[in-house]
Amino acid sequence: MKTYRQHRCARKHRTERAFMRCALPRAVWVVGEGAYAVIAWCRVTTVSLHEELDSAEASKRLIDNHGCGGACRGAHEIVLVER
User: Fold this and answer.
1) What does each C-alpha distance from 31 to 10, 39, 58 come to in angstroms?
2) Bridge-partner residues for 62, per DSSP?
3) Which of 30, 35, 38, 53 has most Cβ atoms within 10 angstroms of its Cβ?
4) Rounded to an integer, what distance in angstroms lies between the CA atom of residue 27 and that of residue 4?
């Protein structure tokens, strides 16, 4: 599993959501809370954060099976966020 540690500024972000907004500024939305991020790299980048790995895996499985939108390419991954 990839780990995201780098972002675009020198700040120490207080939440994973703030960190991911900084690390992926072109993401259309970043929702949820937690250290596990499901990133959909399809037509538009979206991020959903999860407290537990099991929850992130279930979310990824759902979008893998049913798509994340009209232009889904199946480019989904789970990453660990270390802010």
Assistant:
1) 23, 11, 16
2) none
3) 38
4) 15
